[in-house]
Amino acid sequence: MIVPITVNISGRAEPEGEINTDTGVYVNRIDKPAFIRLFRAYGLREEALTRVEELGCKTIVFEVYSTKSRTGPVLFVLSVPFEKFKNTAMRKKFYTPDFRYYLAVQYWNLEGPGQIPSDFFREEKRFS
What percent of the chain has pLDDT over 90? Predict the structure, then answer.
């Protein structure tokens, strides 16, 4: 059964992926800017992590899109076993009022369509 995962953001429920409770695979569709360059990591809200754990999550999958609307082709797909994510990720508050768990890219497995673009992890200049 597919169960949507929602989190409370400023008093309203916002979607944060879905989990297939039969297979234990949690899928979150995210956009490229969700990557936190400081940590070289992708993050998951603590509330979502707790919920998918309760539902028997075995694998976390992030489908990464190039746009905020999360439409068009998937750039690449990252996956990691749930226990590895939970035991290795850093728990931080970073630009948000809630805690998130951040897992550095070297711990993720690259899967599915596409390849990580060569300039994806390039440092960007913030000021001209």
Answer: 41
Predicted confidence (pLDDT) per residue in 26-41, tens digit: 999 887 655 555 566 7
Which tens digits make up the pLDDT trace of 53-67?
999 999 999 888 876
Locate the DSSP E strands across the chain. Answer: 2-9, 12-20, 25-31, 41-45, 59-65, 74-81, 90-92, 100-104, 109-111
83: Cβ–Cβ under 8 A, 6 or more apart, which residues?
none
**Residue 105: how many CB atoms within 10 A of its CB?**
15
**Which tokens go with 23?**
């297979």
CA distances from 95 to 34, 62, 98 (A): 12, 20, 9
Domain parsing of the chain, residue ranges: 2-111
